[in-house]
Design goal:
The complex is a heterodimer of chains A (784) and B (327). Chain A has 784 residues and is α+β, with helices and mostly antiparallel strands. Helices cover 25% and strands 24% of the residues of chain A. A 7-stranded mixed beta sheet of chain A has the order 3-5-1-14-11-12-13, sandwiched between helices. A 5-stranded mixed beta sheet of chain A has the order 9-17-16-15-10, with helices on both faces. A 5-stranded mixed beta sheet of chain A has the order 18-19-27-28-31, with helices on both faces. Chain B contains 14 helices and 12 strands. Classes of the chains: A alpha+beta (784), B alpha+beta (327).
Amino acid sequence: MSTTSGSAHTGTDGGVGAPIDRVDGRQKVTGAARYSADHVLEGLVHAVLVQSTIASGRIARLDASGAEASPGVLDVITHLNAPELPTTRTMSSGGFALQAVTPLQDDRIRHAGENVALVVAETLEQAQHAARLIRVEYDERSPRTELREHGEQVPRFVLSDYLEQAYPPQGVFGDSPDHTRGDPEGGLLEAEVRVDETYTTPIEHHNPMEPAATIAVWQDDGALTVYETTQGVTTTRMALAQALGLPRRKVRVISRFLGGGFGCKGPYWPHTTLAAVAARRVARPVKLVLTRAQMYTSVGYRPETVQRVRLGARQDGILTATIHHSTSTGSEAGELPEPAAEMTKMLYSCPNLETRHRLVKLNMGVPSFMRAPGEASGSFALESTLDELAYELGMDPIRLRLRNYAEAEPDSGKPWSSKALRACYEEGAERFGWEQRNPEPRSMRDGRWLVGWGMATAAYSSASLPAMARVRILSNGRAVAQSGTQDLGTGTYTVMAQVASDTLGLPPDRITFELGDTTLPFALMSVSSSTARSVGPAVRAAAEAAKRKALKLAVRDRKSPLYGAKPEAVGAAEGELFLKADPSRRDTYAAILSRRKMDKVEARRITGLLEALHGIVPAMLPSVPGGLLRAATSPFAGKHSTYDFGAQYVEVRVDPDLGIVRLSRALGVFDIGTVLNPKTARSQAIGGITWGLGMALLEQSPVHAMSGKFVSPNLSGYLVPTNADVPAIDAFFVGKPDPHANPLGVKGVGELPIVGVAAAIANAVYHATGKRIRDLPITPEKLL
Amino acid sequence: MRPFSYLQASDEGVAVATVAENPSASFVAGGTEMLNWMKDGIEEPDLLVDVNALPFKDVEARGHSVRIGAMCRMSDVASEPAVREAYPALAEALEASASPQLRNMATIGGNLLQRTRCPYFRETSFPCNKRSPGSGCSALAGEHRMHAILGASDACVAVHPSDLAVALVALDAVVHTRGAGGERTIPIDDFYLLPGSAPERETVLQHGELIVGVEVPASPFAARSRYLKIRERASYEFALVSTAVAIELVDGTVSSARVALGGVAPKPWRARGAEEHLLGDRLDAAAIAAAGAVAVRGARPLRDNAFKVRLAERAVVRALSEIGGAA
């Protein structure tokens, strides 16, 4: 069940705010939807990657002769025979890669799972078999995951052991790694109550159902088409052109359906370059699909963090100091600090604040953005500390948060573009029954189960990126809307049809939305919850312009019932244009175009450029990692600060004898501005909360210190929630259309719902058991 | 995957003879394990002999025992009324295993021969004495919170993953086999080997010897049995710790007791000390607590899995309490 008070539902059935089914649902369940690896091309051959089994050192000898002689093998590409390639540009130098590794250019190994060969064969099985026949000998160095202390091997990698080696990164998503407001140490001294605790979160992986895949096809004219599992066709095109030294116009990238991305398909990765190189060498279309194990070494991960949070408060709950230091695992292959303390800057009103981000450089693959990068890990620390403070003060945790409610963006003093967080707390508390909570730990039971209730705040800074859209109204009464954006499985096809529907006055089933192709008007990456709020306004603007063109034809056409009307006086609904003052005077797009013997009218519009300009300038400066991703958000632009907000409420049951925790209830209330489609928004919300459950109780990816390798690169050892773990989850939306974010009033929903869930669960576990777990995931041994 | 030959056997004699005479041949039934090993490079057979068509597909309740054909699918056995009523721990262990899809494919014989989930065994670039004898044990000093606390050696600390085998050990099952030398009947507790210095040897089966069935004697304690599996995830996960317990009470005192543990040792672990401790006593809280403590006596945990000692003890206590009606 969902409320839809955030909707701006207008006349046409199925328009913005209507909970319509996914327009591509039937294609997906019947298998008609072609994902990147599903494309059938004549002459297609198969590639298999071979990756290093060591984390640090050099390739001493590589013998590919067995593979080359194996049946069906067309090519084996290694550092010994690979073409010289331009250095792949990373995000810190204006590119889109996180890995500062141009593939197969030298014999160096920087992390376990670095690409060392690509085998191409007629069939997948032949390529897989030949890949096994490649013999690689390494000169192995002791990897920088293996800390030796007192001459003794410490075999288990734990980031806490490495904090002395931490260094300040060049930037944190475009911000400085260190930030101070007021006098944080003075604020601590002034405090009547202090909490000082350290929280740790493990490495986690994205695990999209669909692995990364590339099909590369070269045309005779030297042009390249790539079917790629990417969250950004435009950026992949730019990156691929740069990586191969081709002009952009020679590269086309297609990504019509994605089986989940969650951040790992946002950056550009070196295996895409290799697939294109292979296709050129064998002069055949080449398909490369990463194995599940390769997904753990090739597309990033959420890094491990150690976070120390210090809070100072007066007895009445008013915060006097907030200090949040975060250190995350880094890589020799590229730099990406987890921005865990970023949200801390804005979440509560506190005059004295310090945040700090540090990295430890290791022989591990470079981390990547992962659903709510920074906020997911950071909120575990901050929102757990708030709960600890609430217990110290003997104060209800919602009350404590309301005491420190930020009425304006604390650093800049800018007003929020919209903020319904208070309503999120209130509606959540009421629906959950929070007031019946006895705050005393171990006070609630159900048979042998201890019951605990916990809550946490969610916030996320979703991005607004420039986007272009084209809308074409056809003489058959249908319309086509286009933008080179992506649908990660989240519902872009559906909600964009709804946006166009509202503006054109056509039902969504008469609108086809096309995306995921660089031949379409450009849009940027589907990252940072940006798609709805970036592409939606462009689609709306283009639809509005196309409608005006059609209308102009009508009002100038003596045969039209709308002849002579002022365009502003004409409404559009249910496929017809009508005079608002006299709805009996109506016309249709089909009739308007047919009378003029035109087969279409179309318009193209770009939006978000002005907002982005403020952000793009700093983004273009070198050495600002991820600048383009985050810098284009509204905090840099305009007069308002824009965030998505929410409140998470959970109930857990803990078996105190066996240490088992089960989530029994979860409820999230969110302010995402306009809800384009309550059904797809709800799917995002329950998906995010489910992932938060995984983060809280199950997910971790240990590193074998001595070899620098992930111990369980598979879904058998890496646990994600199953249906049996997931209770009924409720999600509600209370926000109103945001008047300042964009003309649609839309904020972001992709990342927000995972934020705060792990903390809410840890807080509930404390309430149930009296045990405060500061190290994720909350596994049985921590509760025994 | 390496190219291999495939033979569908319709006659058990031919199947056994074919595998017995070819050192790099293997049987395949449900394929839920064998295919993983082949894809992961753990096994590279030249010849797969498919035994799915062989006739060992029935569950026969014979009054004094139930005989389960080796080719029976796990899900079919779990839903068999004769099993559910007279051997509840068996049905519970089967239903706690894997996922519905896997239980629909996997066979009883194959289940007994599944191999450890130790990540260092499964990922072939790590040293592992079980997969590659003499290469070393990566788990001993590595990630081993899931590993053995009982029965392990310096060569291998992996645990056996089967749920079913734990229940079978508790219920005194025997394994019927057929090999080149004829038929054998092996008590299941003798079927599995401890690793010692040769962790690659996991069972007493000879190469080419085929499991044709398991037989479980009927008994009052089998009818009063319980399988409890403890795992972080609510389903589709191997046991952190599990236990199968079975009790016969006469006039309120324990006349027969069986206690077995899973997820704690390289083989399904029969806790005979705990069984003896329960005999002749009332099944009260004190007796149950004492039996739990005895069940894990002699445990030698590794650096990161001491919690399993306590967890195993508590699992036994919980299962006995439930079966005795005390919880």
